[in-house]
Please model this.
Amino acid sequence: MSDISNIVPSYLNKASKKEKEAFFQVLIHLSASDGHTDESEIAFIKEAALTHKLTNIEDLFIPMEEGDILKKVKVIKDRHLALELIKEMCMLSHVDNLLSDEETLFIGKVGIALGIEMEKIEQISNWVIDRIIWLEQAKYIFEEK
Amino acid sequence: MGRYENCTYFSTLYDAVCNSFPQVDMENARTILREVILAPDDYTVEFEDESYNKKQIMDLIANALIALCITGSPQETFDKTIENVANIIKHMNDGYITDEDAQERRDFLANAARCEFDLFAAYALRQAGGQYNAEKMHELKLNIIRLREFQDLIEGYTRDEVEVEVGREEFEQARPIYRMLKSLQSLGYDYNFSPRERESLNIDHEDDSDLDDAFHYINWLKRLMLLQLRKEIPVLKNNASDFVNVGSAPVADAASPDDSIEARIAQLRGAYDKRRFDSRRFIMLEQSKENSDTNEESLQGD
Model:
């Protein structure tokens, strides 16, 4: 939960309603891809969606076929927004310790649907993980652990 | 320190000293081991009119440790181990877990954990002792990696339960692993799981930080020795005044704090590395899914 709560959603301010919906539906689908959804993740996604004036939140949580989501996500044309979505996916998938096969597959497929290169996804994932390691290192160095 | 910090198998180091110097009793074995790990590099020991330097003693102990695990030729040991792993995967997933099945699993895991410790300690002693035959070191490292992978395989693909039914799904999951082990066995001693197989099975130990060339093996040995001494001499905790030369710091703090942080960060990095997105893994998973979809379609067509 602490990881996804770091989402700074300012880049969503300029997004259209459809882009925002697709953005959150991808995260919702990812959070359930390993067969288990954390309540705190759901609460956070709901809150973030509300902040962005999405009133049909319950509809966003209706399970969708992966193929439909991959079609829907193509509505995101802005590259920066697409890169931010990949970043949020990498952060969200980190929460349960291991990047599962399902999560790897879904992140890659969303990346392809958004026209993001594999190398770029790796760069983003590495940046997310390096950042987490850096924060964890601080706990050792400042003797908080 | 990670995997071995509870010192569960430390006593096999004493056994190895006793096996290297058959005239030595357990008390003297303790002294030799402690001094060879903690003494300065120019340390020598006189024994039975022979003089041994630190590196020689380390080599002898390392060889004795390896001999505890590898009986017969390395090929024979490998064959026997892989046969055991394949059988456990098969017996634990063939419908019902009997007492014998569970015992077979427990025995293997206990033996593999001890052997892994012995081989790692031998690897550390050889690394700390200086230059050693690169081919032999590679072989030793490969054996440690294999033992870690085999333990992960068994822990990941068999249940830690007894007298229970095992479903069709688990059987289907275990079947390709059994086949893979059998084909690996037929390839011979020099072969191991491919990087893709290791990754998809989530048993990858190729990049473990404690097998990296940059790992400080002598520090690991010293820390291990100190942890063991703390277990053997609990009086240090309660009666520090008897050990004036030790100073006020407890033994556990004797290792440099920087070293400890460095080791923990290396461990942390190793754990987090498995959470990175890897495009090769994605492509492999996608191909594998496509193949399975195609197979399903062809089965439906039939």
